[in-house]
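Rotation project, supervised by the postdoc (A.L.). Task for the rotation student: set up a whole-complex structure prediction and record inputs and outputs verbatim in this book. Inputs entered:
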Amino acid sequence: MSTVYSIKKGLDVRLLGDAEKTVVDLEVQRFAIKPPNFIGCFPKMIVNEGDQVSAGTTLFYDKYREDILFSSPVSGKVVSINRGAKRKLLEVVIEADGKDTALDFKAENPKDLDKEAIVAKMLKSGVWPVMRQRPYSVIANPADQPKAIFVSAFDTAPLAADFDLIVHGQGEAFQTGLDALAKLTTGTVHLNVDAKNTTSKVFLNSKNVQINQFSGPHPASNVSVHISRLDPLNKGEVVWYLSAQEVLTIGRLFLQGKFDASRVIACAGSEVKNPKYFKTLIGAGIANMIKSNVADGDNRYISGNVLTGDQLEKNGFVGFYDSMVTVIPEGNYHEFFGWILPGLKKFSFSGTFPAKLFPKRKYKVDTNLHGGHRAFVMTGKLEQVFPFDIYPMQLVKAIMVEDIDLMEQMGIYEIDEEDFALCEVIDTSKTEMQAIVRQGLDLIRKEMS
Amino acid sequence: MKALRNLLDKQKPHFEKGGKFEKLHAAFDSVETLFYVPDKVTTKGSHFRDAIDMKRTMITVFIALIPALLFGMWNIGYQHFLSIGEQPDFWTMFFYGFFKMLPIIIVSYGVGLGLEILFAQIRNHEVNEGFFVSGLLIPMIVPPEIPLWQVGVAVAFAVIFGKEVFGGTGMNIVNPALTARAFLFFAYPTDISGDKVWIAEKLDSFSGATPLGNAMIGDFSNMPSAMDMFMGTIPGSVGETSTLMILIGAVILLLTGIANWRIMLTVFAGGYIMGLLFNLWGANAYMEVPAWQHLIMGGFAFGAVFMATDPVTGTQTTKGMYYYGFLIGMIAVLIRVFNPAYPEGMMLAILLLNVFAPLIDHYVIAGNIKRRLKRLKALTN
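Outputs recorded:
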């Protein structure tokens, strides 16, 4: 039987608004692929506004890695190409025409193909971007030899989508995807599941992979945690990773010969009236998902979870890698003596609030910062939610002073910004740690290239 | 409540850039954030944050100090009336001490917060809450008869040279409150040591020596009982006499997780073990003082609970905390017993280890780096 890795340090943040375990079809008119989702990618447009596209038609490619193509998830018309400051490409919006035409990339059994053929097919169809690498969390370089591939089949983040539900009835596509992955590495393909909550046969009966079980609080599902326990990353090494939902996309490419961008997206959070799962495609607009389904008032729409997700407008689009949308209230209010009152309903990891006495309670959190930014003062707290053999505060300080040697020595290759999300949440000094870690990773990537 | 909010909102533009009171921006900000947690929301990273902030952290330490402070006030009165041979009721004693302490506290906060706001204004950042605690700690570690001007000078020295020259709260090397005390100790030794200063307005005929003062001169016949030292009905600095009240504060700090138990525990352990070693050696009467009594004498407990645990000036790595605390405890007792110039070693032990804390952390982190390199080497071989 597979080994159980028990994670001791961490924190499960329990929030109100868990998605009910039913999947309904969502009617969406507009979809978008958002280049900012792809770290370090410099998009070069191929299509223009007004062009007709099918599912699998290349929209743009990466200027510095021209073989990495990004495809339309749906057939329809390119209605707008939105740019931001300095003409930065933000969104390529496609309006679906309902015809469901898709380019044919030929159905093949990955077992009969070699690595080159599999990579070529994934690149050409635009499926390749689901494959990311550590360090840096950028899209994997097809020419690399990854020492292992990690597939996450669970998510411990607050309100996260249930992967058992997402892969339900998709056993064939999932196994086909894993077969393709097995050809891409000379090392092991790790399928990481929740020791307690993963019950789906799709995962547990998978072949051609090593199944590992993880237990414990968030961030037990973070890929860095899995890498650190199974096959620690050293300087110069590369591993690839993707989520179970993305394995399905690869599987369907080989089974059906087309870019099937289907996604099951959880819509959750305290402000959602009927939190549940929606079946749609990559990059779906959230307008219909939230229409008459959220509470009145000023809300924050997030693609992804509350720890690491991206803020969306009301008419925004789900991110390429995200499998959930979270809605929580904004916190733009002044609170009278908030710092000294007991704060019975507030979420806190510290013992200065009653929250510590009720670890099972579910909270409604808002976006208020609850204080001002300060220098680092408290010590020994971040380590309690950071399950790595790394000193989090010292690493963040090394990044702040841009000391590349020290960052390397202290283990920056082993972590990613998402691993600092909990540290950022509980930090008394309100330091923007995820942004700092991202800067550090970007700086190193630039130095190395 | 609404009226106050409206008033603040109305006045705010005057204090912002271009307003007529632009130069008082930091002061306005500190008042506004005192009444209201700001309406700022998250812009990047995690979308929600823990309800704790620096103000909450500091008020918790403040609350933890209150039992020792109130007891200290009563004890000032108790010692005074004891020395003149009177025995008034509880409240008379308490208010005698209260009015002795109040001016010291006012001077401490007045000078300290004034400087903090000034520096925040010049440096264009928000006022740090660190002095919220330092401002109360300083009055608690001086004798009740300290001249007020000395308090003012010491606070100014501590805030400027102990903290702000390094960049403010979070950047300082040594504990500001202890910097103030060390300044007084070396600049005005007659006002902070000896047997004259520990009891307010005492009769000259009454001995006002502290247990440590007696121990230093080898006079063990006049030592108060261990119970008195634990309860705190002895002369001494205002806040440090009652080990019991300090322990109540320690419980508050540990339950809320504000102070690190590792440091607190190892300071006591270090002091105790050093005391035991001296007991074994037993070359003189001081060495034979039972090891556990060191923990309730002088400022040992106060230093262990409120000073050594300062997260900024202590070690910041988990492993480093054990070394740091242990060495503070050992050195404090070592100085007590061996150095005739300093009756109390706690202040100097903590200041010394404050200076060494970054070095301890450096070696702990070097160990972590070495472990990582070893893993890489094992792979390449």
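Student's summary: Strands of chain B lie at 36-37.
Supervisor addendum: Chain B has one domain: 55-369.
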